[in-house]
Amino acid sequence: MMDSDLSPQDKKDLDKFIKFFALKTVQVIVQARLGEKVCTRSLSSPTGSDWVCHNSFLFSQLINLPVPFFFPERVVDSSLIKLKYFHQFNLAIKDIPEVTHESKKALAGQLPGIERSMCVEISLKTSEGDSMELETWCLEMNEKCDKDIKVSYTVYNRMSLLLKSLLAITRVTPAYKLSRKQGHDYVILYRIYFGEVQLTGLGEGFQTVRVGVVGTPIGTITLSCAYRTNLAFMSTRQFERTAPIMGIIIDHFVERPFGNVGHMHPCNYRAPGEDEGAYNGVEDSQEVCTTSFSTSPPSQMGVPGKEGGVPQQVPVQPCHGAQAEHRRVSSCPPADHVPATPSSSGEDAETSSRSVGVKSGSPCGVLETTFTRKVGAFVNKPGTQVTTASLDLPFAAFAPRAYDLEENDPMVQPPESSATSSPLQGSLHSQGSGESGGPAQDDFVMVDFKPAFSKDDLLPMDLGTFYREFQNPPQLTSLTIDVSSQSMAEDLDSLPEKLAVYEKNIDEFDAFVDTLQ
Amino acid sequence: MNCRSEALEVSVEGRQVDEAMLALLHTILLHRSTGKFHYKKEGTYSIGTVGTQDIDCDFIDFSFVRVSSDELDRAIRKAVGEFKDAMGNGMDGMGQISLEFYQKKKSRWPFSDECIPWEVWSIKVNVVNLANEQERQICREKVGEKLGEKVINIVEVINRHEYLPKMPTQSEVDNVFDTSLKDVQPYLYKITFQITDTLGTSVSTTMRRLIKDTLAL
C-alpha cells in the first residue's frame, strides 16, 4: 500500500501529468472549435521519444508495490525517456504553438488545483460586433483524494481516457455545429483563464455535462462543460466589447466589425479559396492559417459616419488570476506545425484595418448613385431610373439618362420627377418616378450587331433589324376588344337563324347520336 | 467477475441506421482501444499512439470521432452492414446490435478457449418510416440530438472507471487485446445482432415456437 504522503517521484510525475493534461485539454477544445475536421494518424511504431513502460510496473500491479513510471537507469536506451508532446497520453493530439503559449501564460507556472480551476471560454462574435458566450470548459480539482491510486499507471491511463472522452464530447455540444459554420457572419473565439469559474455569461438555463473524473492522491480532477442553451442573440453583454447595438442590425458597411475582441482569441480556420487572414498582425509564418472572412472591395466599403462601427475599447474583464494576452491564434492544418511567433500587441493585432465578415453582394457603392427599381411588365407601380454611369453594369454608359422612358408604354404611368441623388440606404426605396419599363427595345443598349456572314440576300435585313421588327408583334385580331365585341353582337343576331337550321336538321343529329351509342 | 451491461436505444429512419450505429460503436471503441504494444528486451514495452478522425454523417445532423484506423473502420462497417441487411432496407422494424468486450481464458485440450465477457453494450434500434421530406428533416435533427445524448451516456459509463482487464504480459496480450490490426489495439470484441419483426417477436423466438409446434403435432 502506498503511504498517505506521495513519494517525491510520484509527486513529480503527478504534477507533470496534470500540467500536460491541462495543456492537452485546451488543445482539444480549441482545435474542436476551429471549424475544421480534425484528423491525426495512428502510429503503431512508437518513435524514440515515446514513453517507455518498464515491465516491472506490470509486476508491481501484481504485488502492489509502488513503482515509478520508468527507471531511467534501467532503460536500454536513455533517449527513450525523452518526451514528445505529440504523443503524450498515447493520443495523437497536435499542439498548436499559440494555444500552448496562451495556456502556459494563463497557468503562469501554477497548476490546476483546489480552488484554482482552469477554464476555457468559447464565445461567438458576429461581424456586427455582437458577442455571445457559448460554453465554458472547466478543469477543476476537489479535495476528494484517492490515496491508493497508482500515479504512474492508473492516473496516466485515466487521463488518457478522459482526453478521449473530451474529444467525443466536444463534438456534441451546440458550439461545435456553430464553429463548423463560422465564417463570414461570425467567428468563434476562445479565452483561457485561471481561477474562479464564471458562468454568468451563459444566460439562463445553461446545461452542464460532465466529461469525466480522475482521482489522484492529491484530489479528484473533474472536467466538465457548461453550455448555453438559449442561443437567442442578446445585444448587451457583460463582456461587451463594442458599443451596444440594440437588436440585430445587418450592416454590410462596417469597416471593422471584428475590430477589437479584447483578450479573446479567434478559432481561425482556413476556408477554401481564401487568400489571406483578415487580421493585421498575422505573421507571415502563419500565412497558411487564414480566416474565412472575405473582404468587400474597397469601393463597396467605408460609408463615412456610419453608425455601428466598432470602437477601439479595451474591455475590463472581472476575473481572477492570470489572463491570456491579446493575441491572435492561427489554426494549423493537419500535419503541420506552425512555428509560434507571438505578437507583442494583441490589441493592435485584433484591430484590423481590413474589413472582415462583410456580406458582399450588394450592388451599391458610389454614394451619389441613385438606385432604381426596374418594374416588370404589367406592373402599375412606378419605378425609378438609373441615372448614373457609375453603376457597375454592363454598358452602363449607354443607360438612358433623365428622360422619360414610359411615354409610349400604356401599361406604365408616366414619370413624375427625375431621379434624385440620395443616401445609399434611402435610395433603395422607390423615388416615385415612373421611369421604368417603356418600349422594350429602349431598355436595351442599341448595339449594331453585324456578325460575319449575317446578311441574307433573300430578306434584306440584318439580325438587329429582324429582332426589332419582330420584337413587338401585332396583337391578334381575335383578341382585340373591338373584334371580340363585334363578334358577340353578330353571334346574338345570328342565333335565331342558327336555331332554326338546327331544328330542321334534328333528325340528322339524332342519327349521329345513335351511332355513338 | 460480473459482466457489465449497458443498453442504449435509438429510433432512426432506415437510411440513418448505418451512421447511427457507426457513431455509437466507434465512440465506444475509441475509449476501448490503445496504441499497439511493442515489447522489447528486458521486459520493456512501449505503446503506440492512437490517432483520431472527425466523421460527418450524411443523413444525420451529427459528427463523431473515431479511431484513425481503416482496418477497424472496415470491420465495424462490415458488421453494421450485415445488421442493416438483416433489418431490411427501409422497412419498419426493430433490432439490436451488441458490442461485447471479452477476455480469453486458455483451456486445456480438448476444450477450446473460453471467452469471458466483461462489458457488453446493447444498442436497440427502432426503424421508422417517414412520410415526407419535412418529417425527414426534423428526424435528421432529432436523431442528431439523440445521438449526442447517447455519446454523453457512453462517456459517463466509461468514466466510472469500473473493471478493466489488467495489462497483460507479452505472452497473454492476445487474450486481452485484438492484436490483428496493424495500427491500433482494441480490447478483444465481437459484434452480434438480433432482429425483431414488427410484431415484436424475435426471429429466434419464432423459430423456437415453430419447432415446438412441429414437435407437438
From TrEMBL, chain A:
<dbReference type="GO" id="GO:0010506">
    <property type="term" value="P:regulation of autophagy"/>
</dbReference>
<dbReference type="InterPro" id="IPR018731">
    <property type="entry name" value="Atg13_N"/>
</dbReference>
<dbReference type="GO" id="GO:0000423">
    <property type="term" value="P:mitophagy"/>
</dbReference>
<feature type="compositionally biased region" description="Polar residues">
    <location>
        <begin position="289"/>
        <end position="299"/>
    </location>
</feature>
<dbReference type="GO" id="GO:0042127">
    <property type="term" value="P:regulation of cell population proliferation"/>
</dbReference>
<protein>
    <recommendedName>
        <fullName>Autophagy-related protein 13</fullName>
    </recommendedName>
</protein>
<feature type="compositionally biased region" description="Polar residues">
    <location>
        <begin position="415"/>
        <end position="433"/>
    </location>
</feature>
<dbReference type="GO" id="GO:0005829">
    <property type="term" value="C:cytosol"/>
</dbReference>
<keyword id="KW-0963">Cytoplasm</keyword>
<dbReference type="InterPro" id="IPR040182">
    <property type="entry name" value="ATG13"/>
</dbReference>
<keyword id="KW-0072">Autophagy</keyword>
<dbReference type="GO" id="GO:0034727">
    <property type="term" value="P:piecemeal microautophagy of the nucleus"/>
</dbReference>
<dbReference type="Pfam" id="PF10033">
    <property type="entry name" value="ATG13"/>
</dbReference>
<comment type="similarity">
    <text>Belongs to the ATG13 family. Metazoan subfamily.</text>
</comment>
<dbReference type="GO" id="GO:1990316">
    <property type="term" value="C:Atg1/ULK1 kinase complex"/>
</dbReference>
<feature type="region of interest" description="Disordered">
    <location>
        <begin position="289"/>
        <end position="363"/>
    </location>
</feature>
<dbReference type="GO" id="GO:0000407">
    <property type="term" value="C:phagophore assembly site"/>
</dbReference>
<feature type="domain" description="Autophagy-related protein 13 N-terminal">
    <location>
        <begin position="124"/>
        <end position="233"/>
    </location>
</feature>
<dbReference type="InterPro" id="IPR036570">
    <property type="entry name" value="HORMA_dom_sf"/>
</dbReference>
<dbReference type="GO" id="GO:0034497">
    <property type="term" value="P:protein localization to phagophore assembly site"/>
</dbReference>
<feature type="region of interest" description="Disordered">
    <location>
        <begin position="407"/>
        <end position="441"/>
    </location>
</feature>
Automatic annotation (TrEMBL), chain B:
<dbReference type="GO" id="GO:0000045">
    <property type="term" value="P:autophagosome assembly"/>
</dbReference>
<dbReference type="GO" id="GO:0019901">
    <property type="term" value="F:protein kinase binding"/>
</dbReference>
<comment type="similarity">
    <text>Belongs to the ATG101 family.</text>
</comment>
<keyword id="KW-0072">Autophagy</keyword>
<dbReference type="GO" id="GO:0000407">
    <property type="term" value="C:phagophore assembly site"/>
</dbReference>
<dbReference type="InterPro" id="IPR012445">
    <property type="entry name" value="ATG101"/>
</dbReference>
<dbReference type="Pfam" id="PF07855">
    <property type="entry name" value="ATG101"/>
</dbReference>
<protein>
    <recommendedName>
        <fullName>Autophagy-related protein 101</fullName>
    </recommendedName>
</protein>
<dbReference type="GO" id="GO:1990316">
    <property type="term" value="C:Atg1/ULK1 kinase complex"/>
</dbReference>
